[in-house]
Amino acid sequence: MKMRLFIALSASAAAIVGASQGVAQRSAPRGIAQSEATKAAQQHPQLIQEFGGAETGARGTYVATVGRRIAAASGVPGGANGAFTITTLNSPVMNAFAVPGGYVYITRQLLGLMDDEAELAFVLGHEVGHIAGRHAQQRERAATRGSILGVLGAVLGSVVGNNVFGQGLQRYSAQAAQVYTLSFSRDQEYQADELGVRYLAATGYDTGASASLLASLGAATALDARAAGRNDERAVPTWARTHPLSEDRGRRALQRAQANGAPGGGTRNRDQFLAQLDGVLVDDDPRQGVVEGRNFLHPDLRLGFSVPQGYGIQNGTRAVSITGSNGQAQFSTGQYNGNFSTYIGQVYQGLVGQQAGQLQIPQPRTTTVNGIPAAYTTTRIAAQQGQLDVTVFAYEWDRDTAYHFVMITQAGANLGPFTSMVGSLRRLSTAEAATIRPRVIDVVTVRGGDTVQSLANRMAYNDLKLERFLTLNSLAANSTLRAGEKVKLVVYGAR
C-alpha cells in the first residue's frame, strides 16, 4: 500500500477462485476460446496490480515453467504452446486460482507452504483441471459476479439503490478484472484433484504430492484458526476455503495417486524448489503496510492504528478493510485540497455516486486526534435490514494529504465499536518504523545438535513458534531432524 489513491477494496477479493473456458469433457477437449483469452489478457495487468504485483524474476519464471509443463499434459489444445499464462502474485493470501482465458495464478504465500516442486505441480494442475473440466461453465448460474469493489461499495450500492456506485468506482469497475467468486461442487473439486494427479503422473512427478499438499493445507487451516483466536472463515486460508478440505478428499487423492503409480516413485525436485523459495516474502509486504495482531502499521507512510478487539483486518493494495459483528469499516485516502468538507463530500460521492446529493450529510465537526487535525460526519441511510449510519472520519496528514475511515454501524450507535479505532490513528516514530521488517523464508541446512524446538525458536513470530515451524515443514512434534537435510524458517529480512 504505497502512496496512491485508495479505492474501496476488500482483501476478500483475493478469495477468487474462477476457471476459464476450457474443455467440455475430459475425453473431448476444446481449445480455449479466443474471446476469453483476449478478455483475460486485457484484465491481466489490473488483476496483477490489485494483488500486489507479480514475480518477474527467476522465481516467477521457474513457477511458470512448471505450470507450462503441467498444462502440456492437460490435453487442452495449445497447452504445450503458450495457451496458459502462469503468474506468481505478491499476495499474503494463501491462494491459487484460474480465470477465463487460460490464466492461472498462485500467490507467494501458498508457494511458501509447499515442500517441493511436485506439490507446486499438483496445485497448478488442480487449477488447470478446473479449466479442463469446464467447471466455470457448469457453475456459472450459481456464481456471484462482481468486481473488486470492496465491502463498503457493495453494501452501499445495494442499500442506497440500484447498485449505483460513484463515477470513480464505475471507472475502476470497468478497468478491474471481472471475476467469478465460485464455490465449486464437491464432485468438481474431486475431479480437479484427479486431473491434477493425472498430470503429475504424465509429467513424471510423484503422485503422492497431492495428498501431502492437502495435508499441509489442512494443518495451515487449523493453525491460522488458532492464531486468529477464532474459528470463522476469516481465519481459514483462502485456498482451503474456496477448495474445501476434508479427510475424505485427502484419502481420495491418495487413492488416485496409488492408481496412477506408486506414491514416492516420481520426481519431487525438493532441492531445486527450495533454492527458488529461499528469500520469498511471507505475510504482509511492509511496502503495503503490515498487520500485527490488532494493529495496522505502515512504515513508509509512518502511520498506524488499532482495530477493536475481535475485529479482523484485511490489508489490500488499495485499502484496509475492518470487519466484525457490529460494523465494518475501510481505511483509505483520496485527493485533498485542504478543505475537510470538500474531501468528505468526495468520499460520499465515491461511495454512492449521484445519489450522494439525496443524502442528508451534516456539516463535518472538527477535532484533533493525537495532534492530527480531523473532521467527521455521519449520515443515515435506509437499508433492507433497517437504518444504518455511515460515518466518514478524515485526518489531515499534511497540507496535501488526507486519510479517512468509512464506517457502517447500526443507526444510533454513533461510532459504536469504532470509537477507539478512530482515536488510535497516530504517526509512527522513525525508530518504530525502522523495526517493521519483512518476513522471508530462509532455507537452512540442519546441523548436528539441531532440534525441532531449537530451529523453531528462530522463527520471526511472537507466538506459536513451534507450531508454525512444524506446519511450514510438514513435520510432526516428535520428528527427528537429520544433519544435512534442509528445512524452512521464517526470519526477518532487510528493508
How would you describe what is shown here?
36% of the residues lie in helices and 22% in strands. The chain has 495 residues and is an alpha+beta fold. A 7-stranded antiparallel β-sheet has the order 10-11-12-16-15-14-13, with helices on one face. A 4-stranded antiparallel β-sheet has the order 7-8-9-17. A 3-stranded mixed β-sheet has the order 1-3-2, sandwiched between helices. A hairpin with a 2-residue loop joins strand 11 and strand 12. The longest helix is centred in the middle third of the chain and has 20 residues, at 209-228.
The count of helical stretches stands at: 17
The portion of residues assigned to helices is 25-40%
Q: What form results from the Cα inertia axes?
A: globular
- Largest sheet: number of strands, sense, barrel closure: 7 strands, antiparallel
Which features would summarize this protein structure in a list?
495 residues; alpha+beta; 7-stranded antiparallel beta sheet; 4-stranded antiparallel beta sheet; 17 helices; globular
What is shown here, in short?
The protein is an alpha+beta fold.
Describe how the helices and strands are arranged.
Layout: H1 34-50, H2 58-72, E1 85-89, E2 96-99, E3 103-107, H3 108-113, H4 117-132, H5 135-139, E4 144-146, H6 150-160, H7 167-175, E5 179-181, H8 186-202, H9 209-228, H10 238-242, H11 247-259, H12 270-277, E6 281-282, E7 290-292, E8 295-298, E9 303-306, E10 312-315, E11 320-324, E12 327-335, H13 340-352, E13 365-369, E14 372-383, E15 386-398, E16 401-410, H14 419-422, E17 426-427, H15 430-434, E18 439-445, H16 452-456, H17 465-473, E19 486-492
Parallel strand pairs: 1-3
Antiparallel strand pairs: 2-3, 4-5, 6-18, 7-8, 8-9, 9-17, 10-11, 11-12, 12-16, 13-14, 14-15, 15-16, 18-19
Helix pairs in contact: 2-4, 4-8, 4-9, 8-11, 9-11, 9-17
